[in-house]
Amino acid sequence: MTSDEGTSDTAVFLKSLKDPDIIERVRATIKNAHVFKLPPRQTVSVGWRGADWKEKVWQGTVKVVERGDMTAILLVDRTKGSIFAVCPVREGAIDRCVDSSRYFVLRIENASGRHMFIGVAFNERSDAFDFNAALEDSRREKEFEKNPLPAYSGPSKDYSIKEGQKIHVAIPKVAADEEYEHDHESYRTGSEQGQGTRSTVTAKRQGGKKPAGGGFLAPSSKDTPSRTANPTPAAQDAEKARPGDPFFGEPFSSSTFGGSNPFKDSSSDDPFFS
Fold first, then answer.
1. Residues linked to residue 33 through DSSP beta bridges, in sequence order
2. In 10-54, where do the E strands start and end?
3. Are 28 and 134 in contact (CB under 8 A)?
């Protein structure tokens, strides 16, 4: 663009803001950005250093906005929403500092085409990353629009099924009764193996003899006489000699405890404990 009034990039961008038919895309919005007045650079080869910036002139919101074919960086007032400065994105308009990734140098321009360089600093590295990524994405998309990938021009292949053509798919069929027999056989085999294992363990515990009756243990010879099927005569005599027990013989009585009932309360007339 030339530097004549009304023909600069900034003038064209500001004019597009009044056109509702132009699609606007805001790629990034970063709040609390700081603008500094740049001191004179000692040497051009060294680059800009953010540590040398001392004079702060403005604080507000930075936006990366696309309208039509143009991309611009807008410095917007936080309270009023008015545009403080415009930086049209083109070659050489944005530079980075050599001592910090949060500091950038922007080439702002007014409607008449006059321009100056200012320093912009962000509080967080994530803000600087979002700002840089928005600019990079915009650049790549515009390059792709100018140089799109060529369409495939090779021979095309017809994968459609012709008339009368059939596709055969071999799927093995398994009957329901066969599936049941297979599952039942697997379960029965597993049960027999598990029972055999238990029988082997039991046989080892009993001195190498495999128990009869499907693996169940026989009653122990040390069991109480009342639980054996055929009690011995000594066990029968011991049973007769036991004192009264409501579960095994006569109920308790006063004679059981030498003439007195220890469960009877002296102040009670309960006939059950007389």
1. 60
2. 24-37
3. yes
Q: Is 167 a residue whose pLDDT tops 80?
A: yes
41 to 57, 104, 105, 117: CA distances (angstroms): 18, 15, 12, 12
Query: Tokens representing 264?
Result: 């009877």
- DSSP letter at 230? S
Contact status, residue 257 vs residue 243, Cβ threshold 8 Å: no
The C-alpha atoms of residue 104 and residue 121 are separated, in whole angstroms, by 6
Q: SS3 of 46, please?
A: coil
Type of residue found at 225: P
Instruction: Indicate if the pLDDT at residue 58 is higher than 80.
Output: yes
Helix, coil or strand: residue 256: helix
Distance CA 175, CA 110 (A): 84
Amino acid present at 113: G
Q: How far apart are CA 242 and CA 133, in angstroms?
A: 98
Burial class (CB in 10 A: 0-12, 13-18, 19+), 100: middle
What's the pTM?
A: 0.54
Query: How confident is residue 2, by pLDDT bands cut at 50, 70 and 90?
Result: very low
- The tokens for 52 are 């040398």
Backbone angles phi, psi at 85, to 5 degrees: -155, 160
Residue 104 has what pLDDT?
A: 96
> Is the pLDDT reported for residue 246 higher than 70?
no
